[in-house]
Amino acid sequence: MTPAVTEFRVADTHRLIPSRHSDSGTVLSRLTEDEAGLGDLMELDGATNDRLLGEEGLLPGIGVHELLYGVRYAHIVNAAFTHAGPSGGRFNNSGRGAWYCGVERETSVAEVAFHKLRQLEEVDWAEEEVGTFDDYLADFATEMHDVRGPKPRYRRYLKAGPIPECYGESQELAAALLAEQSNGLIYPSVRHTGGTCIVCFRPTLVYNVRRGKRLEFRLLAGRDFEDSQVREVRIR
After folding, report:
1. For residue 22, what pLDDT is reported?
2. Is 93 in contact with 171 (CB distance < 8 Å)?
3. pLDDT tens readout for residues 165-182
4. Is 200 left (phi over 0), alpha (psi -120 to 50) or beta?
């Protein structure tokens, strides 16, 4: 049974993105001071950069006319849809990304910490990892499918693990809804009790994007995550 559609209006949702993606210019400039050499590197990078390929209409999972152009932080939004992970996410497959965010900042922090710690454990990294993330705020005013509530049939879409196997049924649901022109889903956070998450399927519905605070995470594999391991730092 298809989840119910809800009129959803919310401001100041939170998506945490590694700060290196907020830098102006290109990180390739750190590799060479020669302009000609930099141009060659950028051309090579562009040939394998999914966001740039998507903006040229060269990705099969998302059409060029779906992406954003000429608005602030368009590259941040477009990257979410064109840089899908090899296994996808809870409500997207490897062919097409989506904009995931938390209604509460604490929810986004918990989600990021969980997945970052999992990555550290997978590579057996034994030292404390310190990294910064920028909080991108966005507003939504649209209809979305809603899988909140106690309905037992929704539980299969909200499994905690194992990853990525637990994403199988939720990705199937998302694919079916996307084919029916769904805008996205509202769902309870699996990593933050009481938190609410949004997955938006359409770049143009991610409205009024702006950069908020920068957060520093101090994470150690095997150590329980606590809020004290995250603090706001100055954007230089």
Report:
1. 86
2. yes
3. 999 999 999 999 999 999
4. beta
